[in-house]
Amino acid sequence: RCRYGIGYSDIAVGKRKSIYRRLFRRLGIRIFYRAACRRCRGGMVRRQDAIFDFWNKDLFSVLYLSGIIVNPTHQGKGISSSLLGMVMEDFNPQFLAARTQSPVMYESIMRSCKQVYPNVKCSPPADIVEAGRFVAQDKLGMSTYDPESMLGVGTYGNCLYGKEPVSKTDTVEHWFKETINLQRGDAMIVIG
Question: Which of 6, 39, 147, 177 has its CA 20 to 30 A from that of 13?
């Protein structure tokens, strides 16, 4: 459930959905999404949970992916990318943002946005630097955040993953290995 006791996935379609969507945009609140479950011999299997925060700043809005969990048997099937696309369409923010150590999450955001920063090819423009600073320092309290590299050194204190996530793209995988020290707990703010 979200802070106000309303999960976006709990809302009926139609006029009521539209009213709540406007409320979410205006207040800048947390959205909880639970994907459909399916029955199996062991009971219910949840395919995905995701939490988004929607923040408004003077000149821009940010949809922040706070967290996403996909059942391992369903990973790699485009579930996260589909969800990101659906939520982006519903809320139409100027920016999609996430804090991550994972090249897989980075690629998922790449599929949902026209341009993603930081990236291998170029430095982030001024509006992206400001959005990254807003997310990292104002909203997440990352004291070691560097706006130019969009990296927080030692943010998590260690690696969050039992098994290191591996990108399907050699360029992204190589860049992440050069940029992020997982053992130190580095994290990247990704803005698309």
Answer: 39
> Residue 110 is which amino acid?
M
The whole-angstrom separation of Cα 134 and Cα 184 is: 23
C-alpha to C-alpha distance for 84 and 73, rounded to whole angstroms: 19
Q: What is the pLDDT of residues 132-162, one digit of tens each?
A: 999 999 999 999 999 999 999 999 999 988 8
| d(C-alpha 83, C-alpha 86), whole Å | 5
The residue type of 128 is I
DSSP state of 135: I
d(CA 165, CA 104): 6
Task: Please provide the size of the chain in residues.
Answer: 192
Extract the tokens encoding 72: 């391992």
